[in-house]
Amino acid sequence: MEASKEAFLREFGEHYGYPNGPKTIDEIRATEFKRLDGLVYLDHAGATMYSELQMEAIFKDFTTNVYGNPHSQSDTSSSTSDIVREARQQVLDYCKASPKDYSCIFTSGATAALKLVGEAFPWSCQSCFTYTMENHNSVLGIREYALDQGAAAFAIDVEETVHHGVSNGTAASMKVLQYQVQRRNEASSLEEPTGEAYNLFAFPSECNFSGLRFSLDLVKIIKEDPARILEGSPFCNGRWMVLIDAAKGSATEPPDLSLYPADFVVMSFYKLFGYPTGLGVLIARNDASRLLKKTYFSGGTVATSIADIDFVRRRKSVEELFEDGTISFLSIASVHHGFKILNSLTVSAISRHTASLAWYVRKKLLGLRHENGARVCTLYGDSKALFHDFGPTVSFNLKRSDGSWSGYREVEKLASLSGIQLRTGCFCNPGACAKYLGLSHLDLRSNFEAGHVCWDDHDIIHEKPTGAVRVSFGYMSTFEDAKKFIDFVTSSFIALPNWIESGYQLMQGSESRLGAASFYLKSITVYPIKSCAGFNVESWPLSTTVGGTFLNNTRIQACRAS
């Protein structure tokens, strides 16, 4: 391990850890994440871990202060309102959004924030909803609101090309590879857009499937030159608004709204610092939020209403208009303890640290080979992208030496048995999943008809994977986490690595001998049921057919003789 870490630090040392922070990465793990001892947690894209010191600070806060309902008028309620106001400002500061231009609306999560935009957006039969293929289902769901109003919907695939040799070193340009028009109401296509319709473009700041970061230049392109994306579509004539799904990307690279003035940005706090869950935010430009058409009203969102006649006057404040009922004020009160951690480490240092681990894992996975020279791993994402274009996520699938796929559920369950927690499937991102796995519409429908649905065990259908394996890193992840994962893949999925060269000869029948008398067979573990725990045997006949099903379901441990 020491030699491996020294080699890692020679290559990534300037990015790894927090040498200028209040604690080093080893000190952070030893003092704030003691519960992770013996566990390799690699699903920070799903939910990052909360710090034990963070939770102690929250507990102390809640047990020494009294927070009342902010809709009441008591002193304790006034204190709560102050805390909520401070939390809103911290969120805006995190994305460099001026309170003169933006408002912070608390929701029950990023999904609820996306739903709010979709149901309140001023759709019409002349509107257009355009979104990148690589988007979370929670973004795709907005499409239903658009189509219900007769609007058009486009799914586009954006390719970013990096050019070298310019004055600044590199430059990026984008082109649309393809887009597909989908309509629920064909009659709407006969209407000529007037140019006054409102359109919405949605993309993630970071793809939660591949880890690739999208260029925020898309914000300016859509607002200033939508024809560059839609290539002459009549829907370019309307007013375009931009939504960024930053739920995944904001943990390491929050969008800078002072440079890229998107109209809507959504985030979830458990993706940032683990706790609280069930709390998200919609950051909305004030001029954009005034265009949203909210139907429902509730406690806290009205100035006055009358019960027995149709009379209601809504509040004018953006936050009060869209935050139905009593907000989760205790969760909001805990937010500043999480931001305190991020601010002490700095987001730029977190980004460098997590990226170094992800790049180390990518490099090691790409270098793995079976004994016959075949690659073990297929990575997803553009390997030619620049360093900063990747977030702290690596997605891949594994192949056996004969070229067949190892199912991702098999990888996940064996990893769990080894104390490694990771994520598998399509990660609620069907567009990216189909794109990177090469699944056609026919493949997707066929897989569904074969019984495959999200979160099931049908990981290989018609000799193609239906999802992938994903590992992702957080600010508290260490080199040791990454190394243990690589060791797990190496020991579990590489067929007979270098046995002949190490001195082993597998002979006909039950006999075996050591070509060099420095090794002995220590144990054999058999896994008769796919992805379930195995059992140890004291002996097993070896033959020339040993390389088939037996080895795919068997782990053989060898030790050097003393």
UniProtKB/TrEMBL annotation:
Span of domain Aminotransferase class V: 40-161, 240-485
UniProt superkingdom: Eukaryota
Coiled coil: none
Annotated SUPFAM superfamilies: PLP-dependent transferases
Name of protein: Aminotransferase class V domain-containing protein
Originating organism: Prunus persica
